[in-house]
Amino acid sequence: MDAPSLAAFKNLVNLAAEDLGSQVVFSSDDFFAEKENLLKKEEPIFIADKYTERGKWMDGWESRRKRELGYDRAVIKLGLPGKVKAVNIDTRHFLGNHPAFASVDACKIDAPSSTNVTLGEEKLWEEILPQVPLLRGSPNLFAVEKMGDYTHVRLNIFPDGGVARFQVYGDVTPTTAQDEIMDLAGLVHGGQVVGCNDMFFGDMHNIIKPHPGVNMGDGWETRRKRDWSEDWLVIKLGQKGALEKIQLSTDHFIGNYPKHFSLDGIDATGQKLRFYDGNEADWVNVLSEIPLGPNETFNCEELKSAGPFTHVRLRIFPDGGVSRLRVMGRVVKD
Predict the structure, then answer these.
(1) CATH number for the 182-331 domain, one of 2.40.110.20, 2.60.40.10, 3.40.50.880, 2.60.120.260?
(2) In this structure, are residues 149 and 110 in contact, taking their beta carbons and an 8 Å threshold?
(3) In the chain, what percentage of residues exceed pLDDT 70?
């Protein structure tokens, strides 16, 4: 099976991200390195002369050497349920101790607290990635063979060894539409950042995370401009909706917040948005050039248009960083 490149994952969410509430709820063995390391946001590191009472310290999950037949596994509760499309089994820094093969199973559980998802209830699980060989000291990216909506995944390694990080890429399953105000762009409601022109310092997906930004690196930030132009980002709303309130936060951006921002919307039902093809879509202005300041949350309720929209476009002038964007409104049924 050919592995895709990391670029293929750009518009997908890591459903197993630690900051989304994901947890490693079980591992068969983490003698050398703790299972919780699998989901860490930070890049794995190697410290040559660092040891513990159990052996070499490694920044990942590592089981002991097997002396009998068998394999090791770890069960992850996804922070957000979703449609799994790809996985990354990252073995960086595991050179003579990486697993030879791995596979991935998944299941959907409506009431996780009442169900054993560790070793029992094998009938709950279905294989989404068959056993594949792993490269040592490298990301191992795979598109899954069976895509579905899942709440848990199980990483199986054969026969033992170490994995630095494990990412599960996919689309969040939107919550059921209700007749109440909700964040239509929110990750937990199925919102997706589908494109931007620049995210040099901060990833575009950060802007719709459910929790407040923890620092400057947990927002969307563009590089410095040397002309008076703009940067932009487009969000596909989880469900088509009518807007009622826009909230934008520049938390942690003190010397690098944008001077002002604008917001546009579009109903792209039945069509595909394209970027950089020379054709301007029929965007409708929602907010125009709202002044911004440092480390603050801005609430806007006087909107020029409420939609309904399927997508919104945030424009910042001329550049800078934004922590979070909330697009509050009500779902509109076609």
Answers:
(1) 2.60.120.260
(2) no
(3) 91
Q: Evaluate if residue 204 carries a pLDDT over 80.
A: yes
Beta strands in 44-190 (DSSP E): 51-52, 55-56, 61-62, 72-90, 101-107, 126-133, 141-143, 149-158, 162-163, 165-172, 182-183
> CB of 92 within 8 A of CB of 164?
yes
The torsion defined by the Cα of 180, 186, 191 and 197, in degrees rounded to 10, comes to: 140
Banded pLDDT at 1 (limits 50, 70, 90): very low
Contacts of 36 (CB under 8 A, 6+ apart): 24
Tell me which of 232-241, 269-278, 298-307 is least confident.
269-278
What whole-number distance in Å separates Cα of residue 123 and Cα of residue 193? 35
Which residue shows structure tokens 């559980």? 109
d(CA 241, CA 292): 26
CA nearest 236: which of 193, 299, 300?
Answer: 193
CA pair distance 54, 46, nearest whole angstrom: 17
**Rounded average pLDDT over 190-196:** 91
The pLDDT of residue 223 is above 90: yes
Any idea which residue has 């930004």 for tokens? 213
Q: Rounded distance, CA 148 to CA 74, Å?
A: 20
Q: Is the dihedral of CA 21, 24, 26, 30 positive or negative?
A: negative
Residue 3 confidence (pLDDT) above 60:
no
- In the chain, where are the structural domains located? 6-172, 182-331
Residue 266 has pLDDT above 50, yes or no: yes
- Give the model's confidence band at 4: pLDDT under 50 very low, under 70 low, under 90 confident, else very high: low
Q: What is the mean pLDDT of residues 264-291?
A: 84
Question: Which superfamily does 6-172 belong to?
Answer: Galactose-binding domain-like (2.60.120.260)
CA 262/CA 267 separation, integer angstroms: 17
